[in-house]
Amino acid sequence: MHQASGYATIILAAGNSSRLGEPKQLLKYQGKTLIRHVTKAAIEAKSATVIVVTGSNSTLIEEELASLSYHAVQNVNWESGMASSIVAGVQELMTMHPNIAGVILAVSDQPFVTSDLFNVLIDKALETKFGIVASEYDNTFGTPVLFSNRYFPALLTLSGAEGAKKLVKKFTDDATSIPFPLGSVDIDTQADYQKLLRNS
């Protein structure tokens, strides 16, 4: 059996941003769209591969990322909730890289995610042997979050609106975290976006 190696990043970008009224993935911040920013950060980090899961607005998002070396996965069930995107991404990853050591799940609306943050998640996983490494902000664990491959079966059981946080709570004994105070900034509404632009 081959030794498991490397960590992939799956970026969840399938939602239709109903509360925002336009695709949040394509909002511009500091000259780049949010989806391009997070995808570039993942590619520049120690990611073995980067998968972007699209659903609503998939054509626009893929056009925006056309020049980047990533792998697109279309989630035809995106309307059923975030879990379907996690499942679609993990299934694709297991097919592409059956020996991958683990995966980082990221979202497209955290503008302060960096390649350094992804690398710190990976380093913490390598140094501590914890199976889950989450980002910590607002006294909670959230995305980006790293799962070792032993959690792939559990990730594949998520459904509906369930996200990775359910598993972090369920397996707290095997979870650790890194500080990411700016992780609390995400874009769900026009007010969130305007606040981000004002503060930049």
Structural commentary:
- With 200 residues, the chain is of the alpha/beta class.
- It has one domain: Spore Coat Polysaccharide Biosynthesis Protein SpsA, Chain A, CATH 3.90.550.10.
- It contains seven helices and nine strands, in the order E-E-E-H-E-H-E-H-E-H-E-E-H-H-E-H.
- The strands form two sheets. It has a seven-stranded mixed beta sheet, sandwiched between helices. A two-stranded antiparallel ribbon has the order 2-3.
- Strand 4, helix 2 and strand 5 form a beta-alpha-beta unit.
- The protein is globular, with a radius of gyration of 16 Å.
Structure summary:
With 200 residues, this protein is of the alpha/beta class. It is built from seven helices and nine strands.
Features:
single chain; 200 residues; alpha/beta; Spore Coat Polysaccharide Biosynthesis Protein SpsA, Chain A; 26% strand; globular; MobA-like_NTP_Trfase; nucleotidyltransferase activity; Nucleotide-diphossugar_trans; Nucleotidyltransferase family protein
